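[User] I have long wanted to understand how a fold can be written as tokens. Those tokens are not coordinates but codes from a learned vocabulary of shapes. Could you go through the record with me and say what the backbone is doing? Thank you; the sequence and its tokens follow:
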Amino acid sequence: MYKQALMGDAWIREAQEASKLVEDIETRVKNKNPSLKHQENRLVDITARSKLLEAGIKLDRLESLLRNPPSKPILTNEDLDYRWKMLSELQLRTKALALSLYALPTSSRPGCLTPENAEAINTNVSDCEQDQTKSSSSRDDPELLRPLISNDVTLQSQVQMKQCGTSTSLSLLQKVFWIFGAVLGSAALIFILVLICAVI
């Protein structure tokens, strides 16, 4: 009895429109043919997603009306229970559709993972791993390390040359100081001899 009395209610009419949208989306998703072209399936997905968005807006509005019911018509507890059950059922169906259209991979979306291309992806991964193993083993090849060894030898020779250059410059300075000291010593000796001769 109360269902028939609620048929003319605006909330019920809105819920029925949302239910028709959800049914339409479910039909589109179920009837999607994998043999169709990618663009055709993509067009089906886009249409279904737009309808799903519209249904989500309607369900949000219905839930808001149930949480903040208007003063008229006055709803009994039985009416509210019926509406909440109807809304929760539509919300569950909408979430399932959202998962199938957005979260789960499908053959109509690029980058999908189907059983057919999963083996190809695994093959590519194993090939990449083999290439990386080969490249890592080639890095350990002594022939490839020879330029590094020669660079080390060159660096050591450069260091030795620098050390030789610094030791040579030090020996030259020592010789200059020794000559300068000898000249000063001989000049001092000559000066002392002149003084001695002058005193005698």
